[in-house]
Structure prediction request, 300 residues.
Amino acid sequence: MKRVAIAISVVGLVFGVAILAQTQTESVEQELKKLEKEIGQAWAKRDVASYDRILADDYTWTDFDGIVWTKAQDLETLKSGEVVNTSYVVDDWKVRVYGDAAVVTGRTTVKETWKGKDVSGQYRYTGTWVKRAGRWQLVASHTSKIAQK
Amino acid sequence: MNRIAIAVSVVGLVFGGVILAQTQTESVEQELIKLENEWADAWAKQDVAFFERIEADDYTYTSPSGEVWTKAKDLVFVKSLKPGEGVHSQIIAEMKVRVYGDTAVVTGHCAVKEMYKGQDVSGQERWTHTWIKRSGRWQCVAAHSSEIAQK
Prediction:
């Protein structure tokens, strides 16, 4: 009888931990989804404070022409108002969580002008997130423009 | 006297810890730079086993034209290459490694000489690789490349 009780406890514990881990992964997903939405909105609203908070200091963004942007340069672009975004829709959004790191991939459909030039289209991006001191920050992102067929 | 001894010990310990952390970051950097170079060579050698090892099972590669490749698709592609087809040489440069515990991001530049279906598809690219260390081994979980616009 004792053995059965122990066995049940162990099984219960394993399931409990598995459920907890699953729930945590899901909550990370929700959190990152929210942060990515904030990034999208930051560009639409020129919200420098949110953007500054979400990007890590050593953040790099590699654009579709192979140019690497630092956080400072990216913030400068945001502040300048050179980018005018009227629509930003994300789909095929996937997240993979590795403890205190996560990789997000997705496709965006944007209506946007940059320095007066229409850069609307579909893009694929990869974002790498790291959790430090209890806070998720974006450390790297990379964007490709989807070739039109 | 006792207090001084304790203070000296604490300072020593802190410095020791900092140096150790620094050394570990440097060795991770060296390890990843080595893996990146080996990976670049693996393309020219069509070394399927290397790709199998270096790419995590959930690896994704996003190409300059926005196509997403899984590890399985990558392996099929490498296996399908005929001798002399694909990457002839790949020179990588300007590598920058950032280490976050068991996660690392490497960015770099690559000049690739490549033939595909009889066409020269050589070019220059910028890439971002995300690495995760699991069970003592670094594997790439995500790669993304852009073609550098020719002026």
Remarks:
- The helical segments of chain B are 2-45, 48-54, 71-80.
- The first strand of chain B starts at residue 55 and ends at 62.
- Strands of chain B lie at 55-62, 68-70, 86-100, 103-116, 119-120, 123-134, 137-147.
